[in-house]
Amino acid sequence: MNHAVHELPASLRRLQSPLPMDSVLLPDWQVLLLLPLNSSSAAAGGAKLFCLFHTGATSPALPAGPSSFRCSLPNSVRREVFRCPHPPAADLSSAVPMRVSLATEPEAAPIPTVASYRTPLVPETDSKASPGRERVCACTMVYNVAKFLPEWVAYHAGVGVGRFFLYDNGSEDELGAAVSRLGSEGFNVTTRYWPWPKTQEAGFSHCAAANRDACEWMAFLDVDEFVFSPAWADSDRPDRSMMGSLLAVEPEVGQVSIRCLEFGPSGHRAHPRLGVTQGYTCRRRKEQRHKSVVRLDAVAHSLVNSVHHFRLREGFRTRWAATGQARVNHYKYQAWEEFKAKFRRRVSTYVADWKETANLGSRDRAPGLGSEPIEPRGWAAMFCDVNDTLVRDATHKWFSVAGPGGAHRMVWQN
């Protein structure tokens, strides 16, 4: 359950001697506080109490026993990624990885993590001076997207994405074969095994930190999202300067955020033979969400992100692209057989799986769809307010090739 977060007056935050207490972190971002039985807070009865966090944020304290309370952690204090400086060189052995744990203080019991530390093989370099640094790269977390990947890679490579970083969330399809085939065709695609559930934010943090020397800008997208500018529609062929044209911004702009347009099944009951850009042409009228192309040198040291955008270093700002300048076509509501696969799991930490009866009003859910993977009546015609063929027409012109008998196929088709 999400609670409103209140900021306490400064006078209430100046605690001279905090109460002695123990706390336990529970699932679903809750904390259990255990107070001494004789404390005034434990004896407060029905008084309205709040948990006060180190940032000054609060959340309601709900009784959980005679001297214990349960609080939800405000979003401002939730962390799944922690960043540490390098350990002292004298403590390192280049041959043996070092396990990394967390602790609240030097003598406290360690909290295990999935991280290990290895001595860098080469010293860190200044990213601005790194040779061969790509202007634009793309990063995504994937799960069973092998049949969608060739279209997404071919399209974005055509408009200027030089490298692709895939964080594999435990795929069970032919992802490896698809990546190998793309490599043989000249595309620069690498994968990193990232099996932990609900860790998309952590994966994106890692992607931003690990690839700073390789890329100037990173587009953080899903495989069903395609960046497009209406200004490209009249071009006879794609150009590798296209993505860069969206990033011709002032030096203090640290990320360009682009609004999403959500497309529906467009009458399809199976995956379109020519690909999502060719088959899904009817969308919702209202813009939903956004995605960002991030200048990696501008990312805050904390690496905090919400999937849609990153926190930036001081001195940098976000620029919003107007829909007439750039858009993300999000092929979200696909043919039912494809869409229902999303019920298995969502990869973002803060997005409930659709099979859970939580956050039923969230914009991440399909309107009118409950928590069961049962096809709604009329699904194929849903989410269709505007007939929009802009990307279909451009990509057909750019990526179609003539086949036998005059039939056309797309370059990403096997």
Compute the number of strand runs. 22
The quaternary structure here is: single chain
Q: Outline the biggest β-sheet.
A: 9 strands, mixed
Share of helical residues: 10-25%
In short:
The protein has eight helices and 22 strands.
What does this structure look like?
The chain is built from 8 helices and 22 strands. It has 414 residues and is an alpha+beta fold. The strands form 6 sheets. Strands 10, 11, 12, 13, 14, 15, 17, 18 and 19 form a 9-stranded mixed sheet that branches. Strands 2-3-7-6 form a 4-stranded antiparallel sheet, with no helix packed on it. It has a 3-stranded antiparallel sheet with strand order 1-5-4, with no helix packed on it. The model is unreliable at 1-17 and 122-129 (pLDDT under 50). One of its GO terms (cellular component) is membrane. Belongs to the glycosyltransferase 92 family. GO terms for molecular function: glycosyltransferase activity. It is found in: Membrane.
Features:
9-stranded mixed beta sheet; 4-stranded antiparallel beta sheet; Spore Coat Polysaccharide Biosynthesis Protein SpsA, Chain A; alpha+beta; 414 residues; 2 domains
